[in-house]
Write a structure and sequence with these properties.
This protein is of the alpha/beta class. The chain folds into 3 domains: about 100 residues, no CATH class; about 180 residues, Aldehyde Dehydrogenase, Chain A, domain 2 (3-Layer(aba) Sandwich), CATH 3.40.309.10; about 25 residues, no CATH class. The strands form 4 sheets. Strands 7-10-11-6-5-12-13 form a 7-stranded mixed beta sheet, sandwiched between helices. It has a 3-stranded mixed beta sheet with strand order 3-4-14, with no helix packed on it. The longest helix has 14 residues. The two termini are about 15 Å apart.
Length: about 350
């Protein structure tokens, strides 16, 4: 936004907002007043008055689809509003019968538990072929069980307390719904699904079906569902029905088996990962999405385009006066001056 000449209003997040005090101090020391403005407080109270002014030309947003929809509707002229948003994800890890299960288990563990699974790029549902499901779940559970839970500053801790006060109860509700409909809490004996204050021990659910909330809803936390399938058509149907449009991961050693999934996913998600977890990096790879997962592409080049509108200055090439004028404008116009 700044590179393209835009002033900005930054809404500080309710969780972790204190860290931005350092950012605000740095901007205040380097930029003129009014270039970057910070707003604090509950988004439901602070954002509607700003959007209702109609002075917002572009909104950049990271969060849930419901909040994004409300913000757009609050603008009095939504047709004028450009939207650049990274939203929710329900990324599916697909394990085919010929997959290297050690690789699949390791990558799915990393993809579902890093940052407590609280990232849009996390693997939030695993669909595993029934012929290898038992072996995969055993390997996956062993890797998850080896993760140390504790406080962030403790040595080698991988699972830490959740920042949102309401999140543990929400996760417990997803587990109760799944178990009540026939799923198995694989690591119950190891404490899976229990909590100590805000510290939530990762829970692995096996036998998950589409009738369960965890199959559809974004958990955004350490509850990891495994659904079993007998035919890849079941996976394709789940992908087609999903609201997710961010990423997916395919685990296989056979290009012929990967191809139908890639062909289907190519028009459904923004990134397809082969034998690796879903993720953001490297930065030179565009971070895009479809459906309810994104509006716009996140990359340096795309961000510059998103926060700008092309303007052309033209003149008649056959008119000597216009040619002379056009050649000298960059010496007088700030807009046309070289960067």
């Amino acid at each position: 936004a700044l590179l393209m000449g835009n002033p900005a209003v930054l809404k500080l997040p309710a969780t972790g907002g204190l860290v931005h005090l350092l950012t605000a101090d740095a901007f205040a020391a380097a930029l003129p007043p009014g270039v970057i403005n910070f707003v604090t407080g509950a988004g439901r109270k602070t954002m509607p008055p700003i959007m209702e002014t109609g002075l917002v030309d572009l909104i950049g947003f990271i969060g849930g689809t419901g909040a994004m929809d409300k913000l757009i509707k609050q603008h009095p002229e939504p047709h004028r509003l450009k939207v650049f948003a990274q939203l929710a994800g329900k990324n599916i890890g697909i394990v085919l019968p010929d997959a290297d299960l050690d690789v699949a288990a390791e990558q799915c563990m990393l993809g579902s538990t890093t940052y407590n699974g609280q990232r849009c790029t996390a693997i939030k549902l695993m669909m595993v072929h029934e012929s290898v499901a038992d072996a995969f779940v055993a390997k996956y559970a062993a890797k998850v069980g080896a993760l140390k839970a504790g406080l962030p500053w403790e040595d080698k801790v991988a699972i830490t307390p959740l920042p949102e006060p309401s999140k543990p109860a929400f996760l417990e509700g997803l587990i109760a719904d799944a178990v009540g409909k026939g799923a198995t809490l694989v690591n119950a004996k190891e404490g899976g699904g229990t909590r100590h204050g805000a510290l939530f021990i990762p829970a692995i659910l096996d036998g998950v079906t589409k009738s369960m909330r965890i199959f559809q809803e974004e958990q955004f936390g350490p509850v990891m569902p495994v659904a079993r399938y007998s035919d890849v058509a079941e996976v394709l149907a789940a992908l087609k029905a999903s609201w997710n449009g961010q990423q997916s991961a395919i685990f296989t050693s056979d290009p012929a088996k990967a191809a139908p999934l890639i062909d289907a996913l190519s028009s459904q998600v923004g990134r397809i990962n082969i034998n690796m977890q879903c993720g953001r990096s490297p930065d030179q790879v565009p971070f895009s999405g479809r459906r309810s997962s994104a509006m716009g592409t996140m990359s340096v080049a795309e961000a510059l385009r998103a926060f700008s509108v092309e303007t052309a200055v033209t003149y008649l090439a056959k008119d000597a006066t216009s040619v002379a004028l056009g050649g000298a404008l960059d010496q007088h116009s700030k807009f046309l001056a070289p960067l």
